[in-house]
From TrEMBL:
Pfam families: SBP_bac_3. Residues 1-22 form the signal peptide. Residues 33-262 form the Solute-binding protein family 3/N-terminal domain. SUPFAM superfamilies: Periplasmic binding protein-like II. The keyword Signal applies. The keyword Signal applies. This is General L-amino acid-binding periplasmic protein AapJ. The gene is aapJ. Keywords: Signal, Transport. Belongs to the bacterial solute-binding protein 3 family. It comes from the Bacteria.
Length: 338
């Protein structure tokens, strides 16, 4: 398997409103692989093992799209990106899809000309500190040195929080989560701030996770999700409905264990439509009838992907919370397949 590379400086291709870009789905099919941008090493979300195999919650999204389009969940070239390089890579066509715990904001959607296809993780920004720092609230951090990744919403939220609470801080700008982890453990900063899920994932890799605590404040809304370029609605539909298929599969009880049996046909029309035994949803997307079945088989439904990679039984230990299905008190919800 090819190793992913960190993107350097890229020339951003200007996207003119109203002008269609190349048909990404056709490019992916012709190339025979999906180029998917992921975070630069965040265990539980996207990480590469010693054998060059990628795994994680966001990696699962990439594999599901590759399975839907190409019928092969391994047909993915993973491209490491940082907050500084990710948007340039997507705009320039270096990647077909960005699945990198990225917050959906007005300026990114409208100003940068990207389409967020949905939310795959509802998050919020938090703070991590060494337990021996002796603080119990982010409001006790006056004068603290804070590591924050450049060119992210975390950087802007940090400024807003300290300003609104009339306290000061020293910004320690970092390039990536990997850089932040090194700086934090080396003592270059007393605090690390990013999405709470990212803090939990980072802490899980420490030699002694119990020596670090997450402070109670959540200072922002961070709806994280995959995104594509403006102007290629057909590609956006494919990625959007692949995510919806994973979400609906969990709600309807379609799992990696029973999907083969359910694909023989059921008395539930929506399950049949999703799995391609009824209707013509695949044809509408320009894909095979079993596109959603392939996507779900790539790594399981949404709940299976969540639990395996970041759930309470994983080293990350995240509860579903807002990311539970709507019928279980969460925000997770897919439009109907009909």
């Amino acid at each position: 398997m090819k190793k992913a590379v960190i993107l350097g400086a890229l020339t951003v291709v200007g996207l003119v409103p109203g002008v269609c870009v190349a048909a990404t789905a056709d490019d992916v099919k012709a190339r025979g692989k999906l180029n998917c941008g992921v975070v630069d090493e965040l265990v539980g979300f996207a990480a590469e093992d010693a054998n060059g195999v990628w795994d994680g919650f966001d990696v699962g999204m990439c594999r599901a799209v590759a399975a839907a389009v190409l019928g092969d969940p391994t047909a993915v070239e993973f491209v490491r990106t940082t907050g500084k390089t990710s948007f340039a890579a997507l705009a320039a066509g270096e990647i077909d899809l960005l699945a990198r715990n990225t917050t959906w904001t007005f300026s990114r959607d409208v100003g940068r000309k990207f389409d967020f296809v949905g939310v795959n993780y509802y998050d919020g920004q938090g703070f991590m500190v060494p337990k021996d720092l002796g603080v119990s609230s982010a409001k006790d951090l006056n004068g603290a040195a804070v590591c924050v990744e450049m060119d992210t919403t975390s950087e802007l939220n940090l400024e807003d929080f300290f300003r609104s609470n009339n306290i000061s801080y020293e910004r320690v700008a970092v390039e990536s989560n990997t850089d932040a982890q090194k700086q934090y453990l080396a003592g270059a900063c007393e605090v690390y701030t990013t999405d709470a899920s990212g803090l939990a994932a980072t802490r899980a890799t420490f030699e002694d996770p119990s020596a670090h605590i997450l402070l109670p404040e959540i200072i922002s809304k961070e709806p994280l999700g995959p995104l594509v370029r403006h102007g290629d609605n057909e590609w956006g539909d494919i990625v959007r409905w692949t995510l919806n298929a994973l979400i609906s599969a969990e709600e309807l009880g379609i799992t990696s264990v029973n999907i083969a049996d359910l694909s023989e046909g059921t008395n539930n029309p929506e399950i049949n439509r999703i799995l391609g035994t009824e209707g013509s949803l695949g044809e509408m997307l320009g894909l095979s009838a079993d596109w959603a079945k392939n996507a779900i088989m790539a790594g399981g439904n949404y709940g299976e992907l969540f639990e395996k990679n970041i759930g309470v039984s994983s080293p990350i230990g995240l509860a579903r919370g807002l990311n539970a299905q709507w019928v279980d008190g969460g925000l997770l919800y897919s439009p109907p397949f009909r």
